[in-house]
Amino acid sequence: MRRYLAILFLTVVLALGAQAQMKVASLHPLLTEMAQVVGGDSLVVVDLFPPNGELHDFEPQPGDVAAAAGSRLLLACGKGVEPYLAGLKDSLSADTKLVELGNDVPDAALPGGRGNDPHWWNCPANMKRAARSLATALAAADPAHAETYRSGSRKYAAEMDKLDREARLALSAIPAERRVLATGHAAMCHFCAQYGFTPIPVYGIAKESQGDTAGMARLLAELRAHGVRCLFHEWSESPRAMESLAAQTGATTRPLILDGICPDRKGYAAIFRENVRNIVAGLADSPAAGQQ
Prior knowledge:
The chain is α/β, with parallel strands linked by helices.
């Protein structure tokens, strides 16, 4: 009898614990990871982004809306990354609050004053700020676990500070005159502002953007004027277009994970470190510098 009561008690406790977890939904794998760190066991996080999905092609389907049902928060990047947000919000319950974590991150202007770069996650300092905003939103929705969220935010911030220190040390191998980051699309302006680089986006914000002939001629002239040593293409794209440009300017090419999504590199730290390694390897004096 005692054994039965003990099992019954444990079952009730586990059930109550499961009920105590708040459900949130996320529209980007990096936000999912952030929520898991900040929220710990107090959250159930549903990642709506499909495996092997493309950031600029993704739009939630009815099944995603169903998976998000019951979520107290819907986590989005914001800054225009998700043009479908208004329609998605209308499909969800009024009890689900939309939280655009990028909205609390300072803007980074595109070259030529053509707007702002929405890819704010390519800088650990921005991720740290977003995690604080997330902790505040979680605490407002679930005051009983407010200290858990604050503690999780501090833990996440420490991880971002470590990545920032590592990056500054590795990037110190690149001379000031070589700190020009030419990328396939405009996704590294936040990184450049943080670490002292000049961004040159070959195309626009979205990977499918195309440059005209006159624009390409101006681009080649700019690359030559800056003495750009390496052109960086999105890891998931064919490098052929960038290789063609590199052949005309005497540069090399390397991949970068610009949209924060890469099945081969799980988690923000792995993605950011991979990017830093490739930038150092492409622009520093010695290829060995990129192996740090």
